[in-house]
Design goal:
By secondary structure, the chain is α/β, with parallel strands linked by helices. The protein contains ten helices and eight strands. It has an eight-stranded parallel β-sheet with strand order 7-6-5-4-3-2-1-8.
Length: 249
Amino acid sequence: MQLRRKLVVGNWKMNGSLAQLAELGPIADAAREAGGVDVGICPPFTLIAAAVTRSGGVAIGAQDCHQAASGAHTGCVSAAMLKEAGAKIAIVGHSERRADQGETDALVRAKAEAALAAGLITIVCVGESESQREAGGHVRVVTDMLAGSMPDDWEEGELVVAYEPVWAIGTGKVATPADVIEMHAALRAALVARFGDRGGRIRILYGGSVKADNAAETFRCPEVDGGLVGGASLTAAQFVPIVEAAAGG
């Protein structure tokens, strides 16, 4: 993946079946036709190996990984196992895991380090809740989360950040372009302050209920390098227009 090319990644969450992998065909066709856009799909662990065989060139990834290489961690999957299954991407620190599994910034950072060590493109997620935004400290909350979650050592093109406004996911509330621009600018400034010029080359995705009807406007915002897409990635009919919007952005 080249640097600062648009990147659109679908997160299927706990959805999907072998039959649903048929959606990958038209998604792969759209990715080839779009040009200039990297496309990935992160299905449940159980579908990764099968998805790789039907990906048509779309990068297949995972929604999480364990921070340890191996050991007595029942029900967990290591980054090396994901790599062996054919995954190319790992999402870490998704807002649902932070909330439901109590994942801390330190744990997310450890997972990111493990994913990078395995050779996976690693998407580190950050974002604020509704109460944090209403309190007025949302920028500080998210940049602090970024500081605690980001690993120090990485190679060019391996590390991606995804901003998820938790208050705009499945709530009916919509982040305005001004909201997106404010946060992405703050994240870019934090990355450059920490990593210098290299921080200017880390892709920042927007992940707040991206859909076909808002993707083009969102992708035109400064410092938005693509999207982390939830429910709209489950079918080609919904996901392909988002890929096309990224190509036109």
